[in-house]
Amino acid sequence: MPNWRIRAEGRVAGIRTHEIVGGACGTRLVTRPAHRMAPSTSSYSFPIGFAIRRAFKKGYGAADLRADLLASVVVAIVALPLSMALAIAVGAPPQHGLYTAIVAGFIAALLGGCKFQVSGPTAAFVVILAPIVNKYGLSGLLTAGFMAGAMLVAMGAFKLGTFIRFIPYPVTTGFTAGIATVIATLQVKDAFGLRVTAMPDHYLERIGALWRARGTADWREVVVAGATLALLVGLPRVTKKIPAPLVAIAGVAAVVALVHHLHPSFEVATIQSRFHGIPRTPPKPALPWAGGLSLATVRELGSSAFAIAMLGAIESLLSAIICDGLTRTRHDPNAELVGLGIANLVAPFFGGIAATGALARTATNIRAGARSPVASAAHAVLVLLAMVLLAPLVAYIPMASLAALLLVVAWNMSELRTAMGIVRIAPRSDVLVLVACFLLTVVFDMVVAVSVGFVLAAVLFMRRMSEITESKLTVDQSRDEGGLVLPPGTSFYEVNGPLFFGAAQRAMDSLHASESDAFRTIVIHLGKVPVIDATGFAALENAVDALVRRKKIVILAGPFPQPRKIFDRAKLDAAHPGMVFVAPTLERAVELAAAA
């Protein structure tokens, strides 16, 4: 689709190259044709630290270090409030988002396979992690993240990273838009200051709870959220040199603190009032699971951990693909999965929640002039320093401001223009997949949406493939086929296209439908069949058996190498001596038909 627009936390696969047009929070990536771009996959194995080794191999000097450090400052400014906001959205204290950015962000940068990737907590995880916190608490959340890390390492070890590009685009667009809708809904509570005793796990129940609490809205919270939102959206239109979150979050927090000092009655919820601030100490190692890790716990959290691993892999690798397009570099998808997996294995021991590649922060990193993974690693160190040195100031950040920040992230993540473009010009089957994934993500969860989306996409793909496989049966006494005259009493049947399980039965229907005795011999031309699978061969074999029972001589003509190997192993001609023949070419088939 031409001129797709990818914003902040959005993504798209199969794009050739991009240009960054926006600012830090409102980053916008616009596709533009590339003269030449390196492929996103790699023939290399996945050594630990693929990206940083590759960067240092090309030479790394003082100028590169200076550029990386400057970029890390900009990324840290964006990551600091966003990490806290995402942890709060999940249902965890804000410091756990910072722990994630510090530990997972540092490890993934040094061990991953993408040169500019910035990893940390992302908005896409909210819909998966929030139910885990509600049901199993923080301990269950950390344990699920640890299990997901092991799965990611296994995925990289088995080189499954290259398969991410086969995910249908309507599936990713649908569940992304659904996730954005859920995230935006979750922010209504803090943006309006609603007093909701308990937020249900399911979307429709959440809407009901928010509606019932509508009478508790606080105009002061609405003003704070509105002011923050205006700055986040408006500042990038004025200047892109200053990160919008720095001005919006810090500026509004300072004004709110001043107004509260002058007028004590002006009170809004802040990190201090809700969570008693954040600790000024670095993350300390501790076991993520309370009371030991049992087999029962692993079984209970298995499906959630798998969902985290799959979404983490999708998010990170699609972000890396876009990163390649922006910088004309090449990432190693399997190394990226291994590095991300190790980061998620280690982070829970320091209180970090699930992490993945974050497109908004990665795009900001590139735009700020990063040259190597050192920038991503340095941003994690700066977040740590800010946590230790600025914790008392961070405590003044209003909850409504963080809600406004996530509303912007949700809007950027929704890819509304892209989704509407698909709805407008794509085949109805793709629109069906997109809408189904969106609704299932909102009403149920992402696991159900992606599972159903894959099945729908696969079924529709099979249908399309069956439609491009053509077949025709000619029962004339003689026939001119490509300059070859068929002998009298010979029928000609041709299959054009892949003969696989989605198209096999349809392709063979004509043979089964023909009951004519006007021909003694039938030539089945398979020279235009590039591939045949077990189901296709079974359908062909059944058709041949039916023809032999009707005393017809069958000649299979001109198969390509792949089908020919199957015929050689199956020995169809040996199973029906004198009745079934395999000819390497159509010319040879005509000779056999004349001699029959």
Q: Please, could you describe this protein's structure?
A:
It is a single chain. The chain has 596 residues and is α/β, with parallel strands linked by helices. The protein folds into two domains: 456 residues, no CATH class; 126 residues, Transcription Regulator spoIIAA. It has 22 helices and twelve strands. Strands 6-9-10-11-12 form a five-stranded mixed β-sheet, with helices on both faces. A three-stranded antiparallel β-sheet has the order 1-3-2. Strand 2 and strand 3 form a beta hairpin. Helix 5 runs parallel beside helix 16. It is elongated and about 105 Å long. 51% of the residues are buried.
Outline of the structure:
The protein is an alpha/beta fold and 596 residues long. It contains 22 helices and twelve strands.
For the largest beta sheet, what order do the strands appear in spatially? 6-9-10-11-12
Uncertain stretches: 1-44
Distance from first to last alpha carbon: 55 Å
> Biggest β-sheet: count, sense, barrel?
5 strands, mixed
Overall helicity: 55-70%
The overall strand count is 12
Relative strand content: 5-15%
Shape: elongated
**Count of folded domains:** 2
**Gyration radius, to the nearest Å?**
30 Å
Number of helices: 22
Question: What's the average pLDDT?
Answer: 84
Structural class: alpha/beta
